[in-house]
Amino acid sequence: MILNQVLIFSPTGTPGVGKTTLGKELAQRTGLTYINVGDLAQEGQLYDGYDEEYQCPILDEDRVVDELDEKMIEGGVIVDYHGCDLFPERWFNIVFVLRTDNTQLYSRLEGRGYTGKKLQDNVQCEIFQTIYEEAMDAYSKEIVHQLPSNTPEDLEHNLEQIVQWTEQWMKDHN
């Protein structure tokens, strides 16, 4: 797929919902550039300290936005991060919030080694639709869409749906 127009979107959601799997597979199917914000931050040490309670670095959001800005202008990008409200609205044509059943999410996060408060807070984030609400507050409601992400069939359906949307967007804008 050749991109003549800017096309940028974000799969987002609570950790463990399948953003990275979806984003990488989507990049292979569409030719879009996949950017994992966590990897970008790690490579560039784009941190502003360390959170002892959650045992993870604190993202320096301003530096991340600065680092991505030029890539975003070029377009053709899939941005993978558990939140999206830190990014300017002008960056995205569409935002997909992946949603997972809480019991499945709990098992996935436990399998990643999440424990205690970190595990509980992430499951609660999914229960209370925190990421979806943040996306709805940060962006035009027309570009924010929820997708189920519980099974391999959901993944395949989501990929097919997003590929079709991408192809239609390209036809409409080129």
TrEMBL record:
Pfam families listed in its UniProt record: AAA_18 (PF13238)
Annotated segments matching region LID: 111-121
One CC-aspect GO term: cytoplasm
Residue ranges that the Swiss-Prot or TrEMBL entry lists as coiled coil: none
NMPbind: region residues: 36-59
UniProt keywords, alphabetically: ATP-binding, Cytoplasm, Kinase, Nucleotide-binding, Nucleus, Ribosome biogenesis, rRNA processing, Transferase
Predominant localisation class: cytoplasm
Enzyme Commission number(s): 2.7.4.3
Protein purpose: Broad-specificity nucleoside monophosphate (NMP) kinase that catalyzes the reversible transfer of the terminal phosphate group between nucleoside triphosphates and monophosphates. Has also ATPase activity. Involved in the late cytoplasmic maturation steps of the 40S ribosomal particles, specifically 18S rRNA maturation. While NMP activity is not required for ribosome maturation, ATPase activity is. Associates transiently with small ribosomal subunit protein uS11. ATP hydrolysis breaks the interaction with uS11.
Summary of subunit composition and partner proteins: Monomer and homodimer. Interacts with small ribosomal subunit protein uS11. Not a structural component of 43S pre-ribosomes, but transiently interacts with them by binding to uS11. Interacts with COIL (via C-terminus).
Sequence similarity: Belongs to the adenylate kinase family. AK6 subfamily.
Protein name: Adenylate kinase isoenzyme 6
Native species: Amphilophus citrinellus (Midas cichlid)
